[in-house]
Structures are given as C-alpha cells and as structure tokens.
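Ligand-bound model needed. zinc ion.
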Amino acid sequence: MQAPETDLHETPQDLIDMEAAIELLKTTRPTFYRWLRSGRIKGMKVGRQWRFYPEDIERFLKGQGPRVDLPLDIAPLNAQLISALGSEPEDLRALEGIEKTVRLILRLAQTTQASHLHLESLYQSEGETQGVLRLRHESGLTPVLTCDRRYLPALISQFKSLAGCDPLNQETPQEGQFSDLSGPENIRLRAHFLPALLGESLTLTLLKPDQQISLDMLKLRPSVDLALKNALKQGWGLIITSGPTGSGKTTTLYAALQEVASATVKSIALESPVERVFPWVVSVQTESESGESFVGPLKSLMQSDPDVILIGELRDTETVEMALRIGLTGHLVLTQLHCENAIQGLLRLVDLTGSAYTVTEAVKLVLNQRLLRRNCPACLHQVVLSKSQVQSFEPLFAKAGKSLKVGTQLQQGKGCPACQGTGYRGRLQITEALPMDPALSQLLHQDAEAGEIAKKLKQTGWSNWLEDGLERVLAGESSLDELARVAGLL
Ligand SMILES: [Zn+2]
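Prediction:
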C-alpha cells in the first residue's frame, strides 16, 4: 500500500510546517530552500512534507546554527565536569544538555585561571582515540578530562556558533571571538578551530578585558620602574620591550600604554591580533597574523593625528625604519623586539638601519625581561644550599656575577593543593633597562661591541636581568631551579 501524502497522525504536535517557518523567518521560499539544502536549517520529511521543530527555527533566528544530534547521553560528561569543578555552580543549575556542557567547560577554564583551553580528539597510546580537554596555566598544559570522542563534533559546533563562526564549515580553519559574562568575572575569548585528521581541534584563548594592568602592578625592580616612567614622561621617541616569546613583554607594553593613554592624548594600538582593548585607545587590527609588515597600516594611521602609537612588534627592517622616523617626529612609540638582551636589541637596531645616529636620537629606552614563576606562599619552606647544588648552579652564578656559598639559606615552594603540587603560584618579571644617555650614545657611535658596552655599564653599577633574578631568588620570591630554567642553564 502506498503511503499517504502526509500522515498527520504520526506528526508530533509541536512541529510546524514550511509556510509557518517561512513566515517566522520573514523570508522567501527560494531563500528558505537554499538554507534547507545547505543544512543551515534543520528539518525533517514527514511523508513528502517538510516539518520543523520550533527550537530549530529559533536557533536559526538567533544565528546559533543547527542542532547537532548527540549520539550519546551528555549527562555523564556534565557530571565529570562538575566533579572537576568541585561543585555545581549555582547559576548553571537550571541549564541542561550541551548548553550546560559548554558553560561548565568555560567555568572550569575561568575558575582555574587558565590562559588557554584545548579541546580535541587525540590518539591515546592504548590504541584508542578520545576526546581530551586540556587547560594551560602558568605551570603548563594539564589534561582535565578525557571523554568519548563522539561528544566533540556537537560541542565544537556549539563553540563555533558562540564565536560567530560557521558551524557547517569543517574544512577550513576559522577564528572568532565571544564573551562569557556569566562567570565570576567577565571574560572575552578568542576561538580558533583547526580541521585535523581525527576531527576538529578547538583552542580558546582567555582574555580578561576587565583586568587592570598598570606599571605598579608589575612590581618591576625600582631602577627599571623609574627608567620606564622617566622615558614615558618625555613623551616622544621609542620605548622598546624585548625578550624571547613568553617573557611578558606584551604585558609590560600594555602597562606602559595604560600609563600614558588618556582623554587628552590620542593613542592608537596597531596589533595583529588585538589582544585586548583599553580605555582611550583606538585599537587597530592588521589583516594577517602571518608576519605581515606593519608599514602599510602605519602609514595610514599616521594620517589620524596620533600622539602615542603602540606597534605590536618590530618584525622587519621597514617597520623598524618607519617606527624610528615616527619617534623622531615627536610621537611616543611603544613597541617590542624579539632579542636576547637589551644591549643586543640596540645593536640590532643599529645594524638593521645602518645608522647609529637615528637609533641614539629616536630610542629612549630598551627594556629586556623574563618571567619567573613565583614561589607558592602556601607551601614555602627553607632549603639550605648543598655542595652539589653550588656546583650545578655554578654557570648561573658565574653569568650573574655572584657566588653563593654552601649553606646559604633559600626559600622554595614544596608543592601543595593551592599550587597544584608545583611549588609555584603566579609569576614575576625580572628585568634590565637601558635608557639612552650620552655615554651609551657615544659607545654606539664608536661601534662598540656588546661585551665592551656591558663592561662600561657594569662600571656604573648597572645590572642585567639575570642579576635581578638572583636577587629575587635570594629574597625568597623564586627558586634557583626556576631561574636556571629561564636562563637556559639547567
Ligand atoms: Zn603550594
């Protein structure tokens, strides 16, 4: 027997037909068909007629993308997340299903102060592929939970909708941003979706727009703090933060920008990508993250009458030359350079431009820094330097120009729940600052080498970041192991 055209007896009461759906979406029939064919709207055939769940139409209206069918119950995953959180957050109690999963994941990242969240299918050594959620903290990347990988497509699709990305596109990398205002503090998240062999990989970077950054909060050592504030007060020329990747130079740059940006100062930040937005700063994002020069965008933003310009990074000779020119024409330029130490940073600028004159005239300060993990205050205990330790740290002491004796008392974290057993909590910056002055200028004009400059500086009582680090270790703020690790001397 042939099936009747429609069998309304089998249609659940709450389904709506196509005419009603088109009416709800205020669209035309051809457009609606296009959405349906491309999978943007989820529908089902009942006999020969299309029928729709109101929830799917609502999702489309909200731009949330179609629902993804979960092949298995999500409740156990939510229970796992709640257990990782310690208890169920009061405000998420009313949520259900995958919406709850997404919020629980975000809450976990937020309450543990993670900087990044990674969710992806990974091949496990036991020969099984599983979904893995990992969080990055100061102490490194930690797996938080593993789950059935079949949860992931639906979860990643949810995150794509949140981030304004296309949930149907699983073939090309996508990037987006969204805010989570539900947690204890507002956070902004940058999402990156990467197609991979075992399924898409999601990386979230947690940005905290409400978190204040100021120079005073950085607690730089007094001489460096003073040099930086003096250079900022001059109001023109280049202030350069430098160091390797992950040394906190962007944070210092932002703090410096916060110090000068105000209602009476036109400040523009040119970055790729924009990490965060500040009061009284016009943030401009350049198109590409893949090493594109800042020169083009810089040329056009100079038309907008700026006083202070933050340039994400001095990546190429053209940008260096342009930044120096801008500095020389009475603008304050805050920027960063990837280099080993402040002296080498200056020499590199001279080398790139071929002009010691331009560099000594335009540059006001080069700051170089590293990040040290801070001893956890909750499990701090006293350690006595042994003979073998003195021997193994000898290269470090030599480089910092100090010698520590056997029996020297130091403090160190033992490892406790508050620091996830690492002995460290939070970070501190160790720094060196090289302000331009007549003596340094003369050395650069004379083509002096790094060693000679360092020697001359030493005679004036100048000390480098490693010496700052050793001071901090002796003051109980960090450990010898940590300093040796950061200095690459372990
Ligand atoms: Zn601890």
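DSSP finds 19 helices and 18 strands in the chain.
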